[in-house]
Design goal:
By secondary structure, this protein is an alpha+beta fold. Helices cover 48% and strands 16% of the residues.
């Protein structure tokens, strides 16, 4: 009952200091709320178990080729067969190929991202249906009926959990058309390696049934999963896979160029899923911890200042026989009430913060979309409140009844002992140092974002509209497909305000990386050095008018024209970088290039025949936001039909054309999807959204930290001025100028800020060096963000010092001398 009485006394005491109570509670709520929200995010993404059965036995196997800048080259069917026949430490392998389909039969025709899977895929993954059944061995092989399984997210968001979807027939279009039946809905689970909307069996993809897919060792497009054999460990599986993979490379050396540096990696699927978000979430957690440290330091200053003002009360209680433990218990009771109220408000504010941060983190891990707020948030809030309460209760120094040099009885003014003054400044410096770390990190992200945002593309991206109009081949000949796009271009060109229309295989920046590291080729008259491999270039398929639509200037030769069709002469357009590399100081037009990459035999429309160059255009880097030299070879769209992206250059508002273009295309073909209309400027902005969100989130943390730190510095100086009123009065009485007092107080604030910046710099450097051991790609911030952050903090400290300094300069001498 003693501590309960202390709580009642503390409540009465705090009710008489409403301003302090509100300030402390709000400050702690910021620190505790941010940490509770971030912990919920970290727990949901990194720590929450997968729904997959025996997830600790489920592995992800990846083949890479650092020499080609390829972190994941995927596997070919022959490679998977070799692994299945040789590996003993893995009980079963499951295969998954990412594929883009256009689906007809589930409401509006739409493009979906799907996985083409083998019959044992779901068994290996350890997943179950919530409706119907999953694909199994009865659906394997070329003679099976087409079967599709919908992901839970697609079923619940797009189809509104319609149970009648089971048994419905659909048509799937991608490099050919196939029909399938929806057989089930997958339980909520993490889609990996891609956020797919459905999974289909192999028979749904004509490409997967082709002889080139089945026999081509270099035709790599399949991801591989496995389940460890009983008694086998991850280390054993990893060692065996490396050994077998080396044997495979030795037996088929022509498929594994030495310069590509092929290798194989194995890790738990759970670790692979969280790898993309781990670093950013741990950095977020560190940022939240810094905010908590800043908040606690600020509150510690407030509590310490309040204790100094109550020194008379505490001294009297000590003189009347109160023990140190009783006094400390009183302070603890007040801290518990303040921190408890702060934690409660923090947890309440953390719930909406979780939704905001979840949307942010979903850019790095799809698991963030399914966050659930549970009791763990309450425990985190309670734990942080308890830590803060104990720290705050033991910050002040207590008086004793018999100490001659202790805190004395009240004498009419506030006095600060040396140790108290040092503590006040220590907490202020701590706030500044932590704020500097956050501000420097946020400045680095903002600098990176600005660099990306204002990089010049050389194009007028605001007036080019891109729309997905995917290729539909059901019941059509290649000539009819080409005719559809020709007619689309003709009709759209007649709309008011339209300047140019074209079709291409991909949308710049949005589809970056979709075509791998490029294909090998050679050129007429080009001689390579002994031992060198052929050069690599990206291929693109574009219609006449594409370069004019995007505003890419011609260097020499011509654009594609109506004669560059199916059955016509094989022609190509190259970028200036290709011309300079393959034909230095020569005219490239009318010379020939030849694709030599072994992969071309698996790509419909490619041949190893020489192709005549008809034009050279300026480099256009559609892969990177910051443009660089680009080795690209363009083919006529009708000779190499892929994708189906419509580009419209207009002098009018591009978005005003969406409705008439959509109606026009649907009048031509009711099954034709028209999706994702967006100007190239907005496409680029969307690609930068992750960097923009980084800047906003960490900038928000930095602003909150800076505000708390500035208030802390101002509070310390204001309290210092009030305690030194008599000193300042004496100095003024003996002739000191008010301006000197003003400068002295401002100098104190600037000195504390400088010490904080130096401390933060040293700590930041040490933390970055330590983090670099555990996280790849960690970089030290450049000079500009560090200097800018230091300047902002020093300027803020000077501004925060101005008010207390002005107060010191305006002290009334007679009142100050009578204050003691």
């Amino acid at each position: 009952m003693t501590f309960l009485n202390d709580l009642k006394t503390a409540l009465r005491s705090l009710s008489n200091a409403k301003g302090l109570t509100i300030t402390v509670v709000l400050t702690l709520a910021l620190g505790i709320g941010a940490n509770a929200a971030i912990f919920t995010l970290v727990r949901g993404v990194l720590l929450r178990p997968l729904v997959n059965r025996d997830e600790n036995r489920l592995i992800y196997i990846r083949q890479n080729a650092p020499g080609l800048n390829a972190d994941d080259t995927a596997f070919s069917v022959p490679e998977i067969q070799d692994l299945r026949n040789s590996i003993k430490s893995v009980k079963e392998f499951g295969d998954f190929s990412d594929f883009q389909f256009t689906v007809v039969g589930l409401g509006e025709p739409r493009g979906v991202r799907a996985g083409v899977v083998g019959g044992n895929y779901f068994e290996v993954m350890g997943l179950h249906p919530v409706l119907g059944r999953l694909i199994d061995m009865r659906d394997d092989g070329p003679n099976a009926a087409g079967a599709a399984v919908l992901t839970y997210r697609f079923w619940s968001t797009v189809l509104k959990k319609d149970p009648s979807v089971i048994g419905k027939g659909i048509r799937l279009e991608s490099m050919g058309a196939r029909t399938a039946t929806v057989v089930g809905v997958l339980e909520p689970s993490v889609p990996y390696p891609d956020e797919t909307q459905m999974m289909v069996n192999v028979v749904c993809s004509p490409h997967h049934l082709s002889a080139t897919m089945v026999t081509g060792r270099v035709h790599r497009m399949t991801e591989l999963f496995g389940r460890l054999a009983p008694g086998a460990t991850l280390e054993q599986a990893r060692a065996e896979l490396v050994s077998v993979h080396q044997t495979i490379m030795k037996d088929h050396a022509d498929a594994y160029p030495v310069s590509a540096k092929f290798g194989i990696e194995t890790r738990l699927l759970r670790d692979q899923i969280t790898s993309g978000a781990k670093t950013i979430l741990l950095v977020l957690l560190a940022a939240a911890a810094l905010v908590f440290i800043i908040a606690c330091s600020n509150v510690a200053n407030l509590i310490l200042a309040r204790t100094v003002r109550r020194e008379g009360e505490l001294a009297i209680r000590a003189a009347l026989g109160a023990t140190n433990s009783a006094l400390r218990r009183t302070l603890l009771a007040e801290s518990v009430l303040l921190c408890g109220a702060g934690a409660l408000l923090g947890v309440l504010s953390a719930r909406p913060m979780v939704s905001i941060l979840g949307s942010y983190a979903s850019r790095f891990s799809v698991r963030a979309l399914d966050l659930e707020v549970d009791s763990s948030m309450l425990w985190v809030g309670a734990g942080l409140a308890l830590i803060a309460a104990v720290v705050l209760a033991f910050v002040p120094r207590l008086p004793s009844a018999d100490s001659s040099n202790g805190i004395g009885l009240p004498s009419g003014s506030v006095r600060i002992t040396g140790s108290t003054s040092r503590r006040l400044r220590l907490f202020a410096v701590t706030q500044i140092a932590a704020s500097f770390l956050l501000l420097a990190g946020a400045s680095m992200l903002v600098k990176t974002l600005l660099h990306l945002q204002y990089a010049q593309t050389g194009l007028d991206t605001d007036h080019v509209l891109a729309m997905d109009v995917p290729l539909m081949s059901y019941g059509k000949t290649p000539e009819q497909i080409a005719g559809f796009y020709r007619e689309t271009i003709r009709r759209v060109s007649e709309l008011p305000g339209v300047d140019k229309v074209s079709v291409a295989v991909s949308v710049p920046w949005r589809d970056a990386g979709g075509f791998g590291p490029g294909l090998q080729f050679t050129a007429e008259g080009h001689v390579k050095n002994p031992g060198d491999e052929d050069q690599r270039a990206h291929f693109r398929s574009v219609s006449p008018g594409y370069f004019a639509s995007l505003g890419i200037p011609i260097v020499e030769g011509r654009d594609f024209n109506e004669s560059d069709r199916i059955g016509g002469e094989r022609v190509a357009i190259i970028t200036q970088s290709v011309a300079q590399r393959m034909f230095p100081n020569q005219d490239a037009v009318n010379r020939h290039i030849t694709w030599t990459d072994p992969v071309i035999k698996f790509i419909p429309g490619f041949t190893p025949e020489p192709i005549r160059i008809v034009g050279v255009y300026a480099d256009f880097d559609d892969q990177h936001v910051i443009p660089g030299p680009q080795m690209t070879i363009y083919h006529p769209f009708e000779q190499l039909m892929f994708g189906g992206e419509l580009f419209v250059r207009t002098s009018a508002n591009p978005y005003s054309l969406i409705a008439p273009i959509t109606r026009m295309i649907h009048d031509m073909s009711t099954d034709q999807p028209v999706e994702h209309p967006m100007t190239l400027s907005d496409v680029r902005s969307e690609v930068l959204s992750a960097d923009r969100l980084n800047s906003i989130v960490f900038g928000g943390f930095a602003i909150v930290a800076l505000a708390i730190a500035v208030v802390g510095v101002a509070g310390v100086l204001a309290f210092s001025v009030s305690a030194r009123t008599r000193e300042f009065g004496i100095r003024l009485a003996i002739g000191s100028q008010p301006s000197r007092l003003l400068a002295g107080v401002i100098a104190q604030g600037a000195f504390m800020a400088a010490v904080g910046v130096i401390t933060g710099t040293v700590l930041g450097y040490g933390i970055a060096r330590l983090a670099n051991r555990y996280f790849e790609g960690m970089q030290m911030p450049s000079t500009l963000p560090v200097v800018a952050s230091a300047f902002v903090l020093l300027a803020a400290a000077v501004v925060a010092s101005a008010l207390p300094a002005a107060r010191a300069a305006r002290i009334d001498v007679m009142q100050a001398l009578r204050s003691d």
